[in-house]
Amino acid sequence: MRSGETDCAKVLEDEKIAAVGTAVGEALGHIGNLDMDVFVTEDDIYVLELNARFGGGYPFSHLAGVNLPKAIVKWLKGEPLEQELVVKKPGILAQKDITMIDITDCVGQEMDY
Question: Which residues, 6+ apart, have CB-to-CB distance to 102 below 8 Å?
């Protein structure tokens, strides 16, 4: 993480973390997307933060096969959900890339600092 943003991540399968996520979701009765940050030690899992939104780590899940936006649209339309929309493929290791681009021509004028 850098500046609160997930820059690099490996998608993994961890039954203990999944169990914490399931327990939190059931306890809250949450029906949508819930971004959960956890800290894992050798002995325990600590929930640091919950956000009812797509967090900075979601693109990694999407890259690994989860298409939650499409699943939500299907739920809202009452359409059946193909399981492949919400089942991730572990093992994906990815890095976000930030590239500087010159937008001078897009703005129409140079900025004078």
Answer: none
Give residue 40's Cα distance to chain centre.
18
Where do the DSSP E strands lie in 52-111?
93-95
Q: Which residue has the tokens 């290791």?
A: 93
CB–CB of 38/46 below 8 Å? yes
| Rounded Cα distance, 29 and 24, in Å | 8
List, for residues 11-56, the tens digit of each pLDDT value. Answer: 888 999 999 999 999 999 988 889 999 999 999 999 999 999 998 8
Question: What pLDDT, on a 0 to 100 scale, did the predictor assign at position 31?
Answer: 80
58-83 residues labelled b (16+ CB within 10 A) or e (exposed): bebbeebebeeeebeeeeeeeeeeee
* Cα distances (angstroms) measured from residue 108 to each of 26, 88, 100, 103, 111: 52, 44, 18, 9, 10
CA distance 113 to 106: 18
